[in-house]
Write a structure and sequence with these properties.
By secondary structure, the protein is an all-alpha fold. The protein has one domain. The protein is built from seven helices and no strands.
Length: about 90
């Protein structure tokens, strides 16, 4: 039994709209922003939900830099969610 994703599956996850649509439909980021959560709290929630751990300080530093470049906080945090879901750690461990 083969457990590694095929090239087609990998490309679909990275370039297809499926994951992005699910993130938007699930409205986790939008809901947390409406509740007044800070970007750091939302990032921590994403990590705990997806990877069962909090982000490392180095990961937070990189994410802060990426968030600073995007004017729309919801879009930036949804991009973080997408990146975590497409990370090796998530794809191969969960």
């Amino acid at each position: 039994m083969r457990t590694e994703p095929t090239l087609s599956q990998s490309l679909h996850l990275l370039n297809g709209a499926t994951v992005d649509n699910k993130i938007q439909q699930g409205a986790v980021v939008r809901t947390l922003l409406k509740q007044g959560r800070s970007p750091d709290q939302i990032i921590e929630t994403i990590y705990v939900r997806c990877l069962c751990r909090k982000p490392a300080p180095t990961e937070l530093d990189r994410l802060h830099a990426a968030l600073a470049e995007e004017k729309n906080p919801q879009k930036a945090l949804e991009d973080v969610f997408w990146a975590v879901l497409n990370s090796r750690e998530f794809v191969f461990n969960h």
